[in-house]
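Usage

Read records sequentially. Each one opens with the input sequence:
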Amino acid sequence: MQDQEQLKQRLTEIGGRFLRRTVSEMQRLRELATAVSEADAAGVTEIAQTAHRIHGGGGMFGFHSISEAAHQLEVAAREWMDPDSHERSDLAQRMEKLLADLEQAVQRTAQQQNVL
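and closes with the structure output:
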């Protein structure tokens, strides 16, 4: 029983580190948001990669709202990178909203977990 309690405590600690790192990554994602409007493919690629990492970590620690919001942002970024995409301006607006949704989910979860 003690082993289970220690494991649970350890997962909570690791989840807290994930949340703290994700809060700090939000600043970088906001900076990268300008890449979308400037048609900077490298910046949008970094958005997709960061969102993918947050999606996986959020799911692993049971932070489903973060995971889902990050997934949606990743999908939009990958659509934007598609060379056949003709709706980049629509995708840029959608990505701005999805980034705001992700940030809200991160802030809300971090507050609920007493990480902030």
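Summary fields computed downstream for this record:
- The chain has a mean pLDDT of 91.
- Residues 2-37 form the longest helix (36 residues).
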